[in-house]
Amino acid sequence: MHDTVLAVDRIAKRYGDVVALDGMTFDVRAGELFGFVGSNGAGKTTTMRIVLGVLAADAGEVRWRGRPITLADRRRIGYLPEERGLYPRMRVLDHLVYLGELHGMGTNAAIGAAERWISRIGLRAHRDDRVQQLSLGNQQRVQLAAALVHAPEALVLDEPFSGLDPVAVDVLAAVLRERAEAGVPVIFSSHQLDLVERLCDRVGIVRSGRMVACGTVDELRAGGSARLTVTAPQAPPGWADGLPGVRVLGTEGPRTLLELADGADDQSVLRAALATGPVQEFSRHRPSLTELFRDAVTAETRAA
User: Fold this and answer.
1) What is the secondary structure of 208-260 as a DSSP string?
2) Which pTM value belongs to this model?
3) What CATH number is given to the structural domain containing 232?
4) pLDDT tens-digit map of 162-203
5) Would residue 238 count as lying in a domain?
6) Any domain includes 230
7) Cα–Cα distance for residue pair 209/11, rounded to 1 Å
8) Residue 9 belongs to what domain range?
9) Which of 17-26, 135-144, 294-303 shows the lowest per-residue confidence on average (mean pLDDT)?
10) Angstrom distances, CA of residue 215 to CA of 32, 200, 228
């Protein structure tokens, strides 16, 4: 098992009567890509800001390699905020060199690192452009380079894929994999759940300031209910209503998506479908990350 580099332990944060974080707990390990997902307002950005020291927690602790995190530790983290934090009138190369120097790099080292990252993320043609002249997607590439220029020991990225075209997404995904393979722990939030599912070693699902599910996608799937897709062209509406251990999740024309409770008999579902006429499709599958996420964030609403 990889060593834990960054641990968030029972973090709480409140703004008046609004509870932003309620015992947020998770860890990120060396060489791991950790996806941090949740609805808007779930507490992801607040958590990241507390990790970086931008905000102070009301309770709980952030630990770096097993001890309380310090300012020196936080300087070892590369941070990409959701809101771009670039100086619009600075030129790309100058900007990255300046940020490298702020992190304690010598000028020559900062220039070398800036040039390497400009080439790596595909901005060689824009190295002398002012940031404000760039497209939003290219500004996001610069923001990523700014998080990487000082060779951080961990990466915390808030919506890093926002505004990127598919080619830039592939470039960023490759960079994150490379950093993880070099032993750097990477935590990033994203609403692009297919991308999270494809990239991440583990995923944490956040709801109402709490971590409600955490694990590999396969582990999360194993804990989720099995799904059935049944296509029965002659089946009347409501044909599956009342079947034991079965919940109808939705219909699309002749296709019905069902959720099976533990121990439910899928063969009884097949018999009920065949009783209506021909069955063109009968497939069982575990939920995707998108389905798991939807279930996790709507569970509170259903319970209410």
Assistant:
1) TTEEEEEE-HHHHHHHSPEEEEEE-TTPPTTTTTT-TTEEEEEEETTEEEEEE
2) 0.81
3) 3.30.70
4) 888 899 899 999 999 999 999 999 999 998 898 998 999 999
5) yes
6) yes
7) 9
8) 4-216
9) 294-303
10) 12, 10, 23
